[in-house]
């Protein structure tokens, strides 16, 4: 009989169908969205989105089983996962740096095609002391509540759970206000480089807020199911790091795109 004991501290994951299925789903989503530019594939697009959500749910379910019930996430594994999250956040930071670079390049040296001025003519920018300032206050407040919740998880889970839910509500409120802001915008994505970079930068940040809110919602559900302990709450650690990253990016966006242009 073969010896199945391992002599290393790493967690060798079992064969899983979810990465392959998710890859095909994301590829199909891209193709369907491209085809939808000329045809109506709304039902197919909805079906593909539902498949992505189902795959994500089952993939997360397996991860929760491995970490919480099977005990595969040892201290060494958790440290490596944290390092991976740091690398992921750094990659996301450079993703947004590309938008900041584009905005600064176009604003400091505007081209002839947009009239050698920034913002270009006929672009009526938002008042930075209106919805953008309120959104800034909301995200800064959510950063405070998530930090408070994270610090209390070791000795007061009830209060930590309450503060985590407040953070989730603030994240949803931010997304609603940004949607209202887009509806009130007097320029579109097609209005010169300014419109393109504005909606690209703020839109991708909005997507990250939605992802972060979902991340925190999963933490709330798991905290309510008593999955977190004093020494083992890696999911919450990574979610709080991601949320602070979202806060930091928004502050840079607010200063560059809203306040500086006013």
Automatic annotation (TrEMBL):
Entry keywords, A to Z: Membrane, Mitochondrion, Translocase, Transmembrane, Transmembrane helix
PROSITE patterns: COX3
Cellular component aspect of the GO annotation: membrane; mitochondrion
InterPro entries registered for this protein in UniProt: Cyt_c/ubiquinol_Oxase_su3, Cyt_c_oxase_su3_dom, Cyt_c_oxidase-like_su3, Cyt_c_oxidase_su3-like_sf, Cyt_c_oxidase_su3_a-hlx
Ranges annotated as spanning the membrane: 20-37, 43-60, 81-104, 131-149, 161-180, 192-220, 241-261
Coiled-coil segments: none
Alphabetical list of SUPFAM superfamilies matching this protein: Cytochrome c oxidase subunit III-like (SSF81452)
Membrane-related topology note: Multi-pass membrane protein
Residues in Heme-copper oxidase subunit III family profile domain copies: 6-262
Pfam families for the chain: COX3 (PF00510)
Compartments where located: Membrane
Gene Ontology biological process: mitochondrial electron transport, cytochrome c to oxygen
Keyword Translocase: yes
Major subcellular site: membrane
GO molecular function annotation: cytochrome-c oxidase activity
Role summary: Component of the cytochrome c oxidase, the last enzyme in the mitochondrial electron transport chain which drives oxidative phosphorylation. The respiratory chain contains 3 multisubunit complexes succinate dehydrogenase (complex II, CII), ubiquinol-cytochrome c oxidoreductase (cytochrome b-c1 complex, complex III, CIII) and cytochrome c oxidase (complex IV, CIV), that cooperate to transfer electrons derived from NADH and succinate to molecular oxygen, creating an electrochemical gradient over the inner membrane that drives transmembrane transport and the ATP synthase.
PANTHER family with a match to the protein in the record: CYTOCHROME C OXIDASE SUBUNIT 3, CYTOCHROME C OXIDASE SUBUNIT III
Family named by the database record: Belongs to the cytochrome c oxidase subunit 3 family.
Protein's recorded name: Cytochrome c oxidase subunit 3
Organism: Nomia chalybeata
Name of the gene: cox3
């Amino acid at each position: 009989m073969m010896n199945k004991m391992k002599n290393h501290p790493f967690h060798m994951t079992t064969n899983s169908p979810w990465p392959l299925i998710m890859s095909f789903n994301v590829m199909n989503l891209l193709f369907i969205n491209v085809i939808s530019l000329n045809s109506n594939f709304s039902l197919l697009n909805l079906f593909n989105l539902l498949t992505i959500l189902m795959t994500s749910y089952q993939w997360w379910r397996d991860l929760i089983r491995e970490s919480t019930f099977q005990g595969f996430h040892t201290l060494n594994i958790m440290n490596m996962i944290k390092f991976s999250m740091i690398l992921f956040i750094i990659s996301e930071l450079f993703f947004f740096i590309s938008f900041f670079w584009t905005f600064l390049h176009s604003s400091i040296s505007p081209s002839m095609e947009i009239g050698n001025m920034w913002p270009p003519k006929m672009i009526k920018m938002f008042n930075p002391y209106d919805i953008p300032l309120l959104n800034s206050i909301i995200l800064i407040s959510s950063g405070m509540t998530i930090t408070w919740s994270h610090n209390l998880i070791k000795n007061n889970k009830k209060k930590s759970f309450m503060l985590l839910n407040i953070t989730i509500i603030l994240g949803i409120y931010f997304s609603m206000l940004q949607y209202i802001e887009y509806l009130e915008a007097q320029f579109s994505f097609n209005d010169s480089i300014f419109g393109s970079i504005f909606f690209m930068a703020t839109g991708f940040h909005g997507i990250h807020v939605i992802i972060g809110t979902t991340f925190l919602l999963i933490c709330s559900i798991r905290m309510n199911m008593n999955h977190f302990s004093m020494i083992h709450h890696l999911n919450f650690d990574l979610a709080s790091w991601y949320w602070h990253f979202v806060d930091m990016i928004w502050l840079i966006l607010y200063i560059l795109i809203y306040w500086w242009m006013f």
